[in-house]
Amino acid sequence: MTLMPTASSTVGPYLHIGLTPLQVNDIAKDASKGEKILITGRVFDGEGQPVPDALIEFWQANADGKYAHPEDGQDKPLDGKFTGFGRVPTDKEGRYSFATVKPGAVPGPGNSLQAPHIVVCLFMRGMLKHLYTRIYFSDETAANANDPVLALVEDAARKPTIIAERIAGKTEYRWDIRMQGEGETVFFDC
Amino acid sequence: MSQIIGYKKPAPGTQPNYLHAPYQSSIKRAPGKPLIKMAHTLSEVTGPVYGHERINPNDNDLTKQHAGEPLGERMILSGRVLDEAGRPVANTLVEIWQANACGRYPHPGDQHDAPLDPNFTGYGRTATDSEGRYRFVTIKPGAYPWRNHHNAWRPQHIHFSLFGPSFMTRLVTQMYFPGDPLLPFDPIFNCVTDQRARDSMVSKFDFETTIPEFALGYQWDIVLRGRDATHMENKK
Q: pTM for the whole thing?
């Protein structure tokens, strides 16, 4: 039997009713190890206007590079209650903020190692199907240079759109999402 | 490291494009550049595991979340969550949200001049059982106007959000009702070009789950992306 996957649709303008009861904007508190970090930013549409009705979901490994999921067969420890999943809406100015710990490196295709990263799933009114992208970290220059997924971004000028910028003297990274135009965020077909 | 078996890509036309000009809000929010193709890694085939532990009593009965009963036509909404091979997706979170019977959401952005119902929030959640079944008790949502074009009305619909077994099976969609006269005019429903895929968003009226003297039954099955068959061993 082969069934056709159900078609996706937009979250619409009232997404908060359905998707914020299980809002998760701080998973750093669940982690016993790793560097606690804050990721903040804004979401902009094609005219540079903030998107006040977006929702960002985050999925990441723990500080040791282990996913809390049955298909991660790596011989690495789980970290207690740390799930690796976050879900935050944008506010009126398109801002979001997510507290977590910096993920460890995880394996990539073949014998490669992926640089520390967070997988992002983006929803908003006006978007008929969610988009996937990734967050890498600006202070992981060497690991980023060898990352097999970042390497798929052929236009070097676009790579910084998925590398969160560490703010000097803080444990905070800045990462904006731009839907179109100059600095358009890299999205993945995956 | 064992080989990663990714998830299948949906057939062309069975999922909406990001840019669908008749849906005006998509014009400034669809990516301008092509997406970059990538094979799934461990990061994609894993994902948040949400199941029964998040469910409280009455989460799946939207008519019992307040002191009184909501107004409107009671309905039983049930179905199964399956993968593309027809296998049940067990113990996975299903969240829904919807307008009240008058077509109004309790949301600051909803300024439609229709009454709010103090006994209805319009949010529910449940988890599928071992056979992938889910069930909600709710009221039938009303149609409501929106400003996409002149005299634009959304057909009656219920929003669904599901996780499935990985971040790649994530699905947010809308379920519609059979025979709704607004369907042919709705740019959100019609953004899916494949008719069979479009029609699969429409629930079916169902006598089997209709409860005498209480509520009408509607059935709707949901299919999540399946594993890439070219890499799967053939067991048959």
A: 0.96
